[in-house]
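*Target chain*
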Amino acid sequence: MKPLVVFMITLLTALMLEAIPFPEEFLWFRPEWALLVILYWVIALPFRVGVGLAWILGLMVDLLQGGIIGQHSLTYVIISYTCALFYQRLRMYHRWQQGVFVAVLVSINQLVDFWIDHYLGYAEPTLLIFMPAVITGLLWPWSFIILRSVRRIYSIR
C-alpha cells in the first residue's frame, strides 16, 4: 500500500472511533481519538502534518458530531500549533511524559469546547469536562506504539 493511503486510513480510523456511539452516562469517558492521532502525526512528521490538516480534521469532527462548524477546528489548530512548537522536545520525553503533555493539550481542547458550549447555553460547569483528557493521556503510550509501527512498516515519511 502507498504511504499516503495508509496515512489517510489512520485519520479515517480516528474519525470512525469518534463516531462510535457511547451511552449517555459514559460520554465523559470518551477519548479524543481524532486529536490523539493528529498529535501523533504532528510530532512524527512536523514538516508534513500541521495546522492545515488539523483544521480539516476538526471540520470533519464538527460535521460528524453535529456541533457548531469550526468549534473543533479552532481547538485542533491551537493544539496542533502548540504541539508543533514543542515537537523536538516532545520526542525526547518518555512515553508517560508525552502522555502528560497530551493530557494537558487535550484539557485545553476540552476547556475551549466547554467555554463555547457554555456561552451558547449547551453545557453546565463540571470538572468532568477534563475526564477525556485523562483518558486520552492514558491511551497515548499505546496509540504512539501502534501508530509508530504503522509508520515504520509502511515507510511513511
Remarks:
- The mean pLDDT is 93.
- The radius of gyration is 15 Å.
- Residues 3-18+30-153 form one domain.
